[in-house]
Specification:
- By secondary structure, the protein is an all-alpha fold.
- It has a single domain (48-278), classed as Glycerol uptake facilitator protein.
- The protein has 13 helices and no strands.
- Helix 3 (88-107) packs antiparallel against helix 10 (214-232) and helix 7 (176-198) packs antiparallel against helix 10 (214-232).
- It is globular.
- It is found in: Membrane.
Length: 286
């Protein structure tokens, strides 16, 4: 009876098959890969599991910390007299990429370390997690982002409003189409990297892959930021864009806000389709 009352610590957040850890894909002793069944659309049993709510809390806290560090870095850049006297665009890109690397590493075994509704959406389309869990994750990610941006504003209310609050907008010289395209391609790069770095099929062949998974994901975020900060400030994460827009709450933050939801979701969908149909179609064993 005691065993029935204790949650299996070896399964943890992966008690239900639909979870998709971003750095801890399961290994087998003989390294042979067996295709897992797709996650069910609804998994009512999740709602009575502590691991389900623990995973949501982990997503909330990770997104909170992500917004707190990255928005503070953006504010520090904009307060400086020149880019040379601050971390510069490269420093902002490193802040985003480095935080994703650290947070995926910390939360992969709990929630999968999504920290991004677009990532969650892509994994849901690939049937790696249930709709129940996907919606719960997205809600917790958005709440965490709002709280993270709110804490930054509490620290520097005047400069926060004056310097744009880290909100994503399409910068002058670019059209809305340019911004949408940048968000689609940037999110495709990120979600494609997530799929490739966490593919259990690769893990069956290369045992080092899950250990290194957070590194290419964080590096992809860094590179996308380098490329698209001049265009949109780089969203590729609807929760990040929503949190900053709600706390900043100025017209310019909302005018183009749809781009930072539509673009990432399209990019995530394209990455999921590409990975599942093209990449996963390559034979694993003769």
């Amino acid at each position: 009876m005691a065993e029935n009352k204790e949650e299996d610590v070896n399964l943890g957040a992966n008690k239900y098959r639909e979870t998709q850890p971003l750095g801890t894909a399961a290994q087998t002793e003989n390294k042979d890969y067996i295709e897992p069944p797709p996650a069910p659309l609804f998994e009512p049993g999740e709602l009575s599991s502590w691991s389900f709510y623990r995973a949501g809390i982990a997503e909330f806290m990770a997104t909170f910390l992500f917004l707190y560090i990255t928005i503070l870095t953006v504010m520090g850049l904009k307060r400086s007299d020149s880019l040379c006297s601050s971390v510069g665009i490269q420093g902002v890109a490193w802040a985003f990429g480095g935080m994703i690397f650290a947070l995926v590493y910390c939360t992969a075994g709990i929630s999968g370390g999504h920290i991004n509704p677009a990532v969650t959406f892509g994994l849901f389309l690939a049937r790696k997690l249930s709709l129940t869990r996907a919606v719960f994750y997205m809600v917790m990610q958005c709440l965490g982002a709002i709280c993270g941006a709110g804490v930054v504003k509490g620290f520097m209310k005047g400069p926060y409003q004056r310097l744009g609050g880290g909100a994503n907008v399409v910068n002058p010289g670019y059209t809305k189409g340019d911004g949408l395209g940048a968000e689609i391609i940037g999110t495709f790069v990120l979600v494609y990297t997530v799929f490739s770095a966490t593919d259990a099929k690769r893990n069956a062949r290369d045992s080092h892959v899950p250990i290194l998974a957070p590194l290419p994901i964080g590096f992809a975020v860094f590179l996308v930021h380098l490329a698209t900060i001049p265009i949109t400030g780089t969203g590729i994460n609807p929760a990040r864009s929503l949190g900053a827009a709600i706390i900043f709450n100025k017209k310019q933050a909302w005018d183009d806000h749809w781009i930072f939801w539509v673009g990432p979701f399209i990019g995530a969908a394209l990455a999921a389709v590409y990975h599942q149909i093209i990449i996963r179609a390559i034979p694993f064993k003769s």
